[in-house]
Amino acid sequence: MSKVSLLLLALIFVINANAAVTVTVNTDTRRYDTNPRISEVLQPYALQQPWYWPAATLYRTDSNKPEQLRQRVLQLLNTLGQQTSDLGLRETYASLGTELLSWQLAERVVLAIDYDAARVKPELNPRLDDGEYLLQLKLRPEQVYLTGGIAQFGAVPHKAGAPVKEYLASAKLLNGADSSQLAVVQTNGQVQIAGVSYWNLEQIEAMPGAQLLVLFAPPLLDRLTADSNITQLNTLLQQLAVYRILP
Amino acid sequence: MMVVRTSFTLSLLTLALLSASLHAANASSWQQQGAGVSQMAHGGVGLIQTPTARMAQAGDLSINYTDNQEYRLWSVSIQLFDWMESTVRYTDVRNRLYSDDPGFSGTQTYKDKGIDVKFRLLQEGMYLPQVSVGVRDFGGTGLFESEFISVSKKWHNFDFHLGMGWGYLGTSANTSNPFCELKDSFCQRPQGYGGRGGKIDYDKFFKGPASLFGGIEYQTPWQPLRLKLEYEGNNYQNDFAGALVQDSNWNFGAVYRWGDFNFDVNYQRGNTFGFGVHYAMNLHNATQVKIKPAPRVIPQVLNRSEITDRSALATALLYEAGFVLQTSYMSDDEFVIYGEQVSYRDNKEAIERIGRIMVNEVPAHISRYRVVNYAGNLPLVETVIDAKDFTAAARYDVLQPDITSTYVRQQLQPDTVAHISYPSNSGFFTGVETFWIQTFGNPEAFYMYQGGVFANAGYRLNRSLMLNGTAKVTLLENFDKFNYKVDAETVSLPRVRTYVREYVTGSTISMENLYLQWQDKIAPNIYAQAYGGYLETMFGGVGGEMLYRPVDSRFAIGFDVNYVQQRSYENNFDFFDYKTFTGHINVYWQPEFLPDTQLTFNIGQFLAKDKGVNIDFAKRFDSGIIVGAYAAITDVSSEQYGEGSFSKGFYVSIPFDLFSLRPSKGRGKLPWIPISRDGGQPLNRPNTLINATEQTSPFYD
What we know:
The complex is a heterodimer. Chain A folds into 2 domains: 87 residues, Ubiquitin-like (UB roll) (Roll), CATH 3.10.20; 143 residues, Outer membrane lipoprotein wza domain like (Outer membrane lipoprotein wza fold like). Helix content of chain A is 31%, strand content 21%. Chain A is built from 6 helices and 10 strands. In chain A, the strands form 2 sheets. Chain A has a 5-stranded mixed beta sheet, with no helix packed on it. In chain A, strands 7-6-10-8-9 form a 5-stranded mixed beta sheet, with helices on one face. In chain A, helix 3 runs antiparallel to helix 4. The longest helix of chain A is centred in the first third of the chain and has 19 residues. The radius of gyration of chain A is 21 Å and the shape is globular. The N and C termini of chain A lie far apart (52 Å). Chain B is mostly beta strands. A 14-stranded antiparallel beta sheet of chain B has the order 1-19-20-21-22-23-24-25-26-27-28-29-30-31. In chain B, strands 2-3-4-5-6-7-8-9-10-11-12-13 form a 12-stranded antiparallel β-barrel. In chain B, helix 4 packs antiparallel against helix 5 and helix 5 packs across helix 6. Chains A and B meet through loops of A and strand 7 of B.
């Protein structure tokens, strides 16, 4: 057998070895030789705890999309920092950059994970493609996470029935942050823009475990040209927040 | 005059389900919804008498009735885009008669119609207000003709509005007209109206006395209730209903929201009570509960090696996917079905349902399915489905399945049709359609109607040739109230349409059409038809049409030529002397910059031998409802044309699917033509190629 075909054989072997699914459910890792359905993956864990299914999340951990996205955002923040002479703004971009670096990321698969629903509705019970996954099952989260153009990043207690504006009551917004609206990255992966100012206040609630992403205010003139750097930053931040792995 | 045609059984269903179906689907989110905006007395978002800069949600449709002592206002307001609102309105002036001649209009009170439009210029922000500009009643004879600029700024539960109005909104002249300072011609507002009414009188815009108006809308802590306070700039001295006493410029109102309804009461001019009822729905979210078979489940193991029961396949395709199978063909690795989609208007759903049946019923070694869609006997489009990918997606064997990526739509390939002969289905056919003709604002009665059935029968000679005849049977009408048959205007144009009353009152049973038609696809993407006979109520003759329309293209172009003679209204078969050539170049375009919009241009010679273009604008909402408007601009002057100045009209096209419990195709068109005369009138061809080839690049469905 020539060297080339040996190499080919080795390659095929490697591909075959990868042709399987590895799923880490919280901390427990299992390998599946055939592609399992969601319900099969959940079955050993589903009844262990009273899981809060709306907060169950699935990530692909072998995708480099999130890291590429993070680098794009960091680059954008860098550009924005260089463009401005406002020291306060530079500080904002720098501190946001540091915050983003601390995020643990993976490509979120936006799919409602629910053991009961998966066994009833085929569309909620797809097979996992080959690859590595993280499946987080959580008890009902008691916190929501503040991030973006805000001075103190971090978790605050969830308030039932409260409009998102209430979480901002004691928070200090950074220079350049948009005080009119913020993006609510709901626990199920949906992003909603919520008005929080005197002129556009909306009764939008955050799900337990949601992220409240304070956006940045485009300069007045830039509002007319929709594709400014700031608007782009706002869009990318929302995508990145969806990829964030929360405790 | 407007004709609504619906298929018979569906129209019965429609009546039964009308109230249950078309409600706005606000409950799609568990988040609490804001109360939204409310309508003013004239229709359109505003306070009581005055408009604000606010806009409703895109796709909102509001049907309004308000009573304001002298004026009763019926209106429909549609938010066509999030930046554009349009309103049409009928005004009933209770203290004026329709005409001074009781023999002409009896005791009917005065009616007027009007059209308003409002554009948003600036969206509200932290510091800037929302700004809109609009014109009210710009159709020429408008009683409330005015222009305005309005700004709105919200502060917590208070919404503050300030505007400047010209015309009806500005008669009190409580401020100076800023444009008058710039240019003298803006100081005086020209009187009267241009042409024979119905034109947009640009030369009046923003001229003459101006007034400031404004007000506050307060959302009370009790969600359904809102209060309104308004200061208006009209002094009611030049009103059509006479000089009205105005004790105060301040008006007060309250709006109570109940589901999709708003009820309002108000106190106007310091001496007048008014009230209104408003019903709102959203054209984007309108839905209907459906009863349909569950999509076929694909088992884990597929081991079928041959089709054991062909009739079971045909039955399944019909009942589970609405596909009438005419013939099929199987090669080594491909299975092709030929037929017509009759139920599912959503092509994606139809293809998924067909695919699921195919995977179950067709041998497992087949790697490609081809679905060839015909409309009648015209082959229109083929969809090539990759069996493996489709199976994986439909069985959820992949994590994020996307069925649409497993097939392509394309024009018919030569080898697709080479293997089969499509059944010609020659023989007799019959059909029944209901019709409803209605017309608003007539002197004899405000609402006049005629209803009945079109009984249709024909003989198909071969795949592309057929003979077709339709009898019109009137069952229900109040057209016997007509005081006159032909209007008294002296006209210079041939009367090609204004004998309409003669035609519709001829006899209870009449021959609507009787013609021979040939229709076929003559080259890739090119369709043609020829027809001759009694083509429509008022004309007969011969004609032909050609259309170039690629699959899923935003563009189509074609032409039609016809030589026609006017039919007699005295009996079913004779002709009058008037003959003409009429034909158009037809351009259909869905521009990318206007979402879900189709523009149609028909350029050529119309029935009265006038030359010009008919422009049609159609906007499609997510529910499938289409709202459209058209205008014909020809070389006929407004004096020659007569009342209305030029031909124009509006329509709403509603899918029957929104009313029926079973999935269905087909639509009903509700036209609204303010005044119809002889200029800019096209021949109503019995069939048009653009409709016949709808599936190639669907706009309507």
